[in-house]
Amino acid sequence: MLMKTSSDFGGFGAGNPIVGFVVGEVIAAMDSPDGKVGDLFGARLPFRTIQNLSAEELSHTLMWKLTDYLDRSELSLGLGLLGMPGSTAYGGLVDVLRPQQGETIWVSAAAGAVGGMVGMLAKSMYNCTTIGSCGGESKCATIKEKYQFDHAVDYKACADKEALKAAVREIAPEGIDMYFENVGGAHFEAAYESLRRSGRIAVCGSISKYNEAAPERVQINSMTAVTRFLRIEGFMCDPWLRGERGSFLSTMHMLLREGKIAPQETVFHGLESFGDGMRALFTGGNIGKVVVLVE
Ligand SMILES: NC(=O)c1ccc[n+]([C@@H]2O[C@H](COP(=O)([O-])OP(=O)(O)OC[C@H]3O[C@@H](n4cnc5c(N)ncnc54)[C@H](OP(=O)(O)O)[C@@H]3O)[C@@H](O)[C@H]2O)c1
């Protein structure tokens, strides 16, 4: 099968093509149930404009078909809302945290691709009280305006874990029911100590630690988990993206068409802007999904 793709990014290794999440259109195909010319798809593949895949390669490629959900003009949504970050937000919220209507959730990296979607889903599906943390006053205003967060915490204005915890405690004096973890370090410790009885943490990522050679380990009192009946669960998005768990594509598509969720993108143009797009994730230079558009 011959397919044309544009892409965002994934794993790195010297001498190897960069593998990432891409979306594209089938431009030539052998007779196959896997796809026909004109089909739209998302996949985890090398970052290149044309993919030439054998049946064998197709059989072990993570792919999801977008033809029934998107027009060609809105294909980049297959990288965000109907792609890896969307399935991460959906799986982590719906199946890992398992919210009850009206519970209180704290989401970190709340202006990002995953965090923003968690806020919108928590509000539109479960009417949760939503608290988002992100860096800076402007992003705090944006997540309340665009991502249905009731409250925003500027973590950059919090000197340490205690200040972060105090900021959340001021919003939720009784504590929080759920924490969607994207950041790690002080965020994790503050959230753990803010959980009330039967609280849950979905461990999605730890972006504050990815560039540290020897990241400090979080320090928690494990007895708190015992006495408050807490649950901490890590997860990867793959089972939801593959359609093996839940109903990610159809649910997100329905919420999108009903106008209940509205994704944001920060678009970088051309392959040469790849580095800038990547850096934006670590400097806070993005709102929503970072997309590199390759014409
Ligand atoms: N488990 C999975 O399957 C899965 C799948 C996708 C992503 N993830 C994880 O989910 C998290 C979010 O990913 P994403 O793609 O949605 O990225 P993103 O949130 O769109 O972008 C990353 C954001 O993280 C914030 N950030 C960067 N360094 C930080 C620091 N030191 N402290 C606090 N915040 C910091 C920045 O926003 P501010 O301006 O607010 O600082 C930045 O915009 C990452 O940890 C990622 O690894 C996991």
What features would you highlight for this structure?
single chain, 295 residues, alpha/beta, 6-stranded parallel β-sheet, 5-stranded antiparallel β-sheet, 10 helices, 13 strands, 24% strand, globular, binds NADP nicotinamide-adenine-dinucleotide phosphate
Could you please describe the fold and organization of this structure?
The chain is of the alpha/beta class and 295 residues long. Helices cover 32% and strands 24% of the residues. The chain has ten helices and 13 strands. A six-stranded parallel β-sheet has the order 8-7-6-9-10-11, with helices on both faces. Helix 5 packs parallel to helix 6 (186-194). The radius of gyration is 19 Å and the shape is globular. The model is unreliable at 7-11 (pLDDT under 50).
